[in-house]
Design a protein that fits this description.
With about 475 residues, the protein is an alpha+beta fold. The N terminus is likely disordered.
Length: about 475
């Protein structure tokens, strides 16, 4: 029953600065920046290592694309869901833009996969033309970085309208519906309106995608997105760090796709892995940030519990903790439970405060708490009631003789000199003892009788312990 003074609380965490209302506010650590730099370096390393072999024709693995795109769609839809939930909790514009962007990306993958030649049918499902899949790729790889760019600009410029929290769920639903309408619109254009659009692919060759200017525009949009993400990058949130990596992976995906110029080549396969990485990065970051927030929430909860049940100066249990512990022990099924209540205060504590100051007095109280803890066993409890008053619940004593031994040990330890700074201080203590069940079966009676015994010890000259003795009534 010994009280842990630290109670698992990380004292380096302040109670005010750690109140994160949004994942946008969770700062990235140096370790996370270092790890992100390694990921970025690996992306560039793979990109440049692939370039010499990117146009080599590879084996056509039909299940590859549906497997990768399915993982991407699910991960981005999960990411969008988490972002929308976070927006409902903390309605800020950058979070809404990011949620809509990932929802758009996760949804547009579905028609792109259905229309891709050779996956579900030779020409693609839903009467797809030879241009449908590539135009959906264009809408996907331009819409996604545009959304990230809007997020970055709103985040950098501090554009954050004061959405009311009670309306945030409705705003999130409207954002989802508008995104769905947008996806349906561009999908209809890709499936039914390709005759209004230029031809940008022929027999799986992307040469026209580059020469038509469509590909370079997509590349520039992605390049602009990365530039926005890197602007004012010295101190960023963990969320912004993840979005930056995702935008970089998207840029390298587009660059490698355009440079390769065809399907099922080495560069095309590697570019798909870049797309997969772009979709998984923010999900991983979100899960990491959520874990960090839950850890901080748990620490705050521990701190609240600690402050509610412990004395802030000595770390001992307070009156509330002591009372609730006694209440748990005093149950109807445990009427014969035996224990001793020892109530004590320091003799001459006021003089110590007056002579040496309150800082010295506080240090004396802390040392008293340590010595009291060392005077009893693990199953016993020491609490501070306030001022220089302490109370002990002794359950380890089996007899009055055992209680006397403990009381004598307390008296001996407390009267030993204490060196505080340059001052040697020596105090004594008066102790009042009440036994259960002889001196009361319920806690209020036992506490009252222990207090009376303490008063009797002081009447006899202090620096002693006294068992409760009822006063004779006249």
């Amino acid at each position: 029953m010994r009280v842990n003074h630290d109670f698992g609380v990380d004292r380096n965490l302040s109670t005010s600065n750690d109140r994160m209302n949004s994942l946008l506010d969770v700062p990235s650590s140096k370790g996370q920046l270092y790890f992100a730099s390694i990921i970025a370096a690996l992306l560039f390393l793979v990109f440049f290592a692939t370039l010499p072999f990117s146009r080599h024709q590879s084996v056509i693995v039909t299940p590859f694309l549906p497997s990768v795109l399915s993982i991407m769609s699910v991960s981005e839809l999960i990411t969008a869901f988490l972002l929308f939930v976070q927006f409902v909790v903390s309605p800020r514009l950058p979070m809404l833009i990011l949620a809509v962007t990932y929802l758009y990306s996760g949804m547009i993958i579905i028609p792109h996969l259905l229309a891709f030649p050779g996956v579900f049918s030779n020409g693609g499902l839903m009467d797809a033309t030879s241009q449908t899949a590539i135009w959906l790729w264009v809408f996907w790889h331009s819409g996604f970085p545009l959304g990230l760019s809007l997020y970055g600009l709103s985040n950098h410029l501090g554009i954050s309208p004061s959405f009311k929290r009670q309306n945030s769920a409705l705003i999130a639903v409207v954002g989802m519906l508008l995104t769905l309408i947008c996806v349906v619109g561009v999908s209809w254009l890709a499936f039914r309106g390709t005759h209004h659009l230029p031809t940008i692919v022929q027999s799986g060759d992307y040469h026209l995608l580059v020469t038509s200017g469509v590909g370079p525009v997509v590349f520039l949009i992605n390049l602009f997105c990365v530039s926005v993400m890197l602007y004012r990058f010295k101190r960023v949130s963990i969320m912004h760090l993840g979005v930056t990596l995702a935008s970089l992976a998207s840029l390298l995906d587009v660059s490698l796709t355009l440079f390769t110029g065809g399907r099922y080549m080495v560069g095309w396969y590697v570019a798909r892995y870049n797309s997969l990485l772009a979709s998984l990065i923010l999900l991983s970051v979100l899960l990491t940030a959520i874990t960090q927030l839950y850890r901080k929430l748990a620490i705050q909860q521990w701190r609240i519990t600690y402050l509610a049940y412990h004395d802030p100066l000595t770390g001992l249990a307070n009156r509330r903790f002591f009372s609730e512990t006694i209440a748990e022990l005093y149950t109807a099924e445990n009427e014969q439970f035996c224990c001793a209540i020892l109530m004590l205060d320091l003799d001459g504590f006021k003089q110590v405060n007056d002579k040496f100051g309150h800082d010295t007095g506080d240090k004396l109280l802390k040392e008293t708490a340590v010595r009291l803890n060392h005077s009893v066993r693990e199953e016993d409890m020491v609490a501070r009631l306030g001022g220089d008053e302490f109370i002990l619940l002794v359950t380890s004593a089996k007899s009055v003789a055992d209680v006397k031994v403990i009381a004598a040990r307390i008296m001996d330890m407390l009267q030993r000199p204490i060196l505080i700074g340059k001052n040697v201080i020596q105090v004594t203590a008066s102790v009042g003892i009440a036994l259960r069940p002889d001196d009361g079966k319920n806690y209020p009676d036992l506490l009252r009788n222990a207090d009376e015994a303490l008063y009797q010890a002081k009447e006899r000259g202090k620096n002693r312990y006294a068992f409760y003795v009822p006063r004779k009534t006249v």
